[in-house]
Structures are given as C-alpha cells and as structure tokens.
Amino acid sequence: MEPVKRQIKVVLANPRGFCAGVERAIEIVERALKKYGAPVYIKHEIVHNRYVVNSLKDKGAIFTDDIESIPNGAVVIFSAHGVSKKVEDDAKYKELYILDATCPLVKKVHREAQKYVASGRKLVLIGHKNHPEIEGTSGRVAADQVVLVEDLEQIENLPFKSDEKLAYVTQTTLSIDDTKNLVNTLYERYTDIDGPALKDICYATQNRQDAIKEMAKYIDVLLVIGATNSSNSSRLRDLGESQGVASYLIADETQINLDWFEGKQAVGITAGASAPEVLLKQVLDLLSKYHQIVLEEVDGVVENLKFKIPRELEDL
Ligand code: SF4
C-alpha cells in the first residue's frame, strides 16, 4: 500500500514568470530563425534562463559573449539586457545584421543616462557589477562620466563634493526597498542631484516583489524558480528571506530538497521574469509525488503590456 501523503498548501504568486521584455526577446529569436534560417547569433544569453537558452540552441541559435567570434555579415541579436555602444559599434564594423532585443525599458534607462551626462551631470549608476545590463548602461556614456554603486558603503565613498552636479539611474531589476534607501542617501549627501526616483525599476520587477510581500503572510517556505544569474529572481528570494520566510532559488525541480518542507504548512511559489511556466508545472509535479497538494493562487496585478517587435520581423 502506498504511504499516505501529507497534505500541504501550495500558494502561487501572481504575477509571476515571463515579463513583456522577455517574451519579446524570445519572439525575436524565434522569428529571426524562421526568417533568416539557422544559425543566428545571440550576444549573451537572450534571457537568463538555461531552459530557454537550451531550447533556442536546439532550434539553431548560437550564444556568445564575443562579437569577434561571429562571422562577418551574420545575423546577431542583442539580448534583453542591452549592450554597450562599443558592442554595437563592433557589430556594425563586422557588418553584422543587428536585431535588437534589448528590453524597451532598459533602452529608456540608456536614454536617461545619456541625457543626464549631456546636460553636464556626472552619473551614479545603481546596480550590480558585472551584470550585462549594467555593462550596457554604463557603456552608453563616456567611462569617466559614470560611477557604479552597489551599496551604501560605496555611496559613502563617492569622490564627489556635496554640491557636484550629479544624476543617478538604476538597473531595472533591483530590490525596491534597498534602492529606495540608496536613492534617499544620495539625496541626503548631494544638493544638486537629479534622477528618476524608483521609476527605472521596471513594472515586472515591482509587481513580482509586491506579490511576494502579499504572499509572505500566508506561507512558511518560498520557492523562487529562476537562474542564479537572474537579478530579478535573486531579489525575489532575498525579499522572501527579508519577510521571514525560508526562501530558495531553484533553476528547476531537480534542485528541490524535500527536507525544506518538513513541518511546513504552506509553500509559496513564484518565478522570475525569465522563467517559463513549464518549469512551474515540473515543480508542481514533483511536489505532488510526495505530498497531497492543495493549490491556491493569490490575486495580483494583471499584466497586459506587450512590446512591439522589430518591423522586419512583424509579418511572419
Ligand atoms: S525584467 Fe523588466 S526590464 Fe527586464 S526584460 Fe522584463 S520588463 Fe524588461
């Protein structure tokens, strides 16, 4: 006789998973493969998710961080995170056919950064070092006009006078609460500083973080489906922890440790903006092998945003 499964509540966050920028980026790759045939080259992982990247590889996409390695004249797609001006120039120099899958909300930050620097302000860029979005945004202005800060300590060590003409922009996928603190500190220290407050943090990041704050009231363990190099997914895990909920970032169901659910009554599940819904299904399948699950979905903001794809791919 099969052992009786313990009942456990599973609460799904809403919204979760793909955002409009990720959907657009994947669609651009799929349509480019259809229109131009394989291979098409992608600068960096199109979005930070191994499942998505592997399924596009199977269809003929080649991922690389090195523009030099791409044959002259080939089709190249810039990932959703955006690229620096230098990467764009290098691609043009090699006469690559460029399709730009940079999220329009990242492009907006690029334009803001350029506008502030053009107006004579030094730029403080708030974000995570080595993240491709930060490399892209900082590489949209002259290197001596921008300084990256990741935390309060780095703000305290900035080399500027208190009345220096400054501006700041932020990465799109940061923690809302942490960024608020950093921005407030900048305003406390500098008298002539301009910036978008928290508006660079995109709607998808905001909505997924709000959903965790709401859900944290009902759960005692949280699973965030997403890649470790996915900034927005990592922030969801951090947020769960900060709400006092044991929180785990998992790429897929194989990374689940069943001990996490010992003595727990309610498991929350969310997915980062680059994690497809199929991964959630696999997680639920695994949980229901060992537990009798009672599924609930929290109400949340309905996201209807859709970004246009490049004109040359529209009629496919
Ligand atoms: S997480 Fe936000 S900025 Fe990044 S691709 Fe999605 S919508 Fe665009």
From TrEMBL:
Keyword Membrane attributed: no
Signal peptide: none
GO annotation terms (biological process): dimethylallyl diphosphate biosynthetic process; isopentenyl diphosphate biosynthetic process, methylerythritol 4-phosphate pathway; terpenoid biosynthetic process
Binding site for (2E)-4-hydroxy-3-methylbut-2-enyl diphosphate: 48, 81, 131, 172, 230-232, 274
Enzyme Commission number(s) from the entry: 1.17.7.4
Binding site for isopentenyl diphosphate: 48, 81, 131, 230-232, 274
Metabolic or biological pathway: Isoprenoid biosynthesis; dimethylallyl diphosphate biosynthesis; dimethylallyl diphosphate from (2E)-4-hydroxy-3-methylbutenyl diphosphate: step 1/1; Isoprenoid biosynthesis; isopentenyl diphosphate biosynthesis via DXP pathway; isopentenyl diphosphate from 1-deoxy-D-xylulose 5-phosphate: step 6/6
Transmembrane regions listed in the UniProt entry: none
Cofactor note as given: Binds 1 [4Fe-4S] cluster per subunit.
Gene3D superfamilies: 3.40.50.11270, 4-hydroxy-3-methylbut-2-enyl diphosphate reductase, catalytic domain
Xref: Pfam families: LYTB (PF02401)
Residues at which dimethylallyl diphosphate binds: 48, 81, 131, 230-232, 274
The keyword Translocase is assigned to this record: no
EC class of the enzyme, as a word: oxidoreductase
Keywords linked to the UniProt accession: 4Fe-4S, Iron, Iron-sulfur, Isoprene biosynthesis, Metal-binding, Oxidoreductase
Record GO terms (molecular function): 4 iron, 4 sulfur cluster binding; 4-hydroxy-3-methylbut-2-enyl diphosphate reductase activity; metal ion binding
Function: Catalyzes the conversion of 1-hydroxy-2-methyl-2-(E)-butenyl 4-diphosphate (HMBPP) into a mixture of isopentenyl diphosphate (IPP) and dimethylallyl diphosphate (DMAPP). Acts in the terminal step of the DOXP/MEP pathway for isoprenoid precursor biosynthesis.
This protein's name: 4-hydroxy-3-methylbut-2-enyl diphosphate reductase
Source species: Midichloria mitochondrii (strain IricVA)
Lineage of producing organism: Bacteria, Pseudomonadati, Pseudomonadota, Alphaproteobacteria, Rickettsiales
The gene coding this protein: ispH
